[in-house]
Design a protein that fits this description.
This protein is of the alpha+beta class. Helix content is about 20%, strand content about 30%. Strands 2-4-5-7-6 form a 5-stranded mixed β-barrel. The model has no long low-confidence stretch (mean pLDDT about 80).
Length: about 130
């Protein structure tokens, strides 16, 4: 084989190896049931805040406790030991990163999907004709 072919094969094999390592580390969104089966591993769960249950925040300890409902409809108590995110109750969806315990889900990070600014009251008018005079 020529030296260029050997180098080309080596580069391709390194790229395939890097791709396999990247795919292995890629995380998928889990449910609370999957989190229970994978404890104590860290998982990411997409859920909604259960506004019917109490949301408790203690500013002295920065402990936030609330209930969340995942995509399968499973409700779980969530403990988050960080400051309460602003507009937490208004978020449409939250992404919880953490692990499951016997009693609850311990979140280490919460990402929020903010409510849409284009609600029924604030819809864009796409029917109007706009003209520009020069």
């Amino acid at each position: 084989m020529k030296k260029t072919q050997i180098v080309l094969l080596l580069v391709i094999s390194i790229m395939i190896g890097a791709l396999l390592v990247t795919l292995e580390d890629a995380s998928v969104y889990a449910t609370f049931e999957i989190a229970d089966r994978q404890k104590p591993e860290t998982v990411t769960v997409v859920a909604k805040v259960d506004l019917a249950s109490p949301i408790n925040f203690d500013p002295k300890t920065t402990l936030l406790t609330f209930n969340a409902i995942d995509k399968d409809g499973d409700s779980r108590s969530v403990v988050y030991n960080q400051p309460k995110p602003s507009d937490f109750e208004r978020s449409e969806e939250i992404t919880l990163t953490g692990h499951s315990t016997d009693l609850n889900f311990v979140a280490t990070e919460i990402l929020m999907k903010c409510p849409s600014k284009y609600t029924d009251d604030n819809e864009l008018d796409t029917t109007g004709i706009y003209s520009v005079n020069f």
